[in-house]
Amino acid sequence: MHILLLIIFILAGWKWGDWKNWRKYYPTILFFIIGDLLYNYLLYDYTMWRFHTSFDKFILPNHTLISIAVTFISFPVKVLIYLGHYPENKSKFIQFIYIFAWILFFTLFEFGALNLGILSHHNGWNLIATFFFYIVIFVMLRLHQDRQLLTWVISFGLIIFLCIYFDVPITSMK
């Protein structure tokens, strides 16, 4: 199932991604990837969500390989589509609707993944946390385009907040 979803992401990126301006979005793509790799490293033994194998388990046999594939395939595509079509010169209301549509879409996408059994939540994480997390992600991706240093500072503060809120034991970190 993950391979099928990744192929869909690749096709969507090919169709709607702003590939001609990929260099403009490259720092934000790296920011997104680094954030996910940091999450996977710090919370390796105390995960908030976990990918599960499906019929494609001979290609992606475990959470780690699925996560790497998602990180390096779907994340760049998401950024190239999301920022490539961001309504830059539109009203704040249109921008709000655009961001909210992305938040809603990916929250519903995760709801589907949960129901298909290819994703599970752990250690207090739930769909409400996912919804708020997507708010943070999509606002931060947009902010990162203009204010990289501020975005990093906010991100480290959010990491600390989330570790405290979800009572992540320091001893579970590598």
Molecular structure report:
Keywords: Membrane, Transmembrane, Transmembrane helix. The chain crosses the membrane at residues 25-44, 65-84, 96-118, 125-143, 149-168. InterPro entries: CBO0543-like. The protein is 68% helix and 3% strand. The chain has a two-stranded antiparallel ribbon. The model has no long low-confidence stretch (mean pLDDT 93). The protein has helices at 2-16, 22-42, 63-82, 92-116, 127-146, 148-165, and strands at 49-51, 119-121. The relative contact order is 0.16. It has one domain. The chain contains 6 helices and 2 strands. It is mostly helical and 174 residues long.
Could you give a short description of this structure?
The protein is mainly α.
Whole-Å distance between the termini?
A: 30 Å
Estimated helix fraction:
55-70%
Low-confidence stretches: none
Strand content: under 5%
Helix-strand makeup class: mainly alpha
Number of strands: 2
**Helical segment tally?**
6
Please tell me the overall pLDDT. Answer: 93
Give the biggest beta sheet: 2 strands, antiparallel
Please state the CA-atom Rg, rounded to the nearest Å. Answer: 16 Å
Number of domains: 1
Order of helices and strands: HHEHHEHH
Name the overall outline: globular
For the biggest β-sheet, the strand order reads: 1-2
Q: What's the arrangement of secondary structure elements?
A:
Blueprint: H1 2-16, H2 22-42, E1 49-51, H3 63-82, H4 92-116, E2 119-121, H5 127-146, H6 148-165
Antiparallel strand pairs: 1-2
Helix pairs in contact: 1-3, 2-3, 2-5, 4-5, 5-6
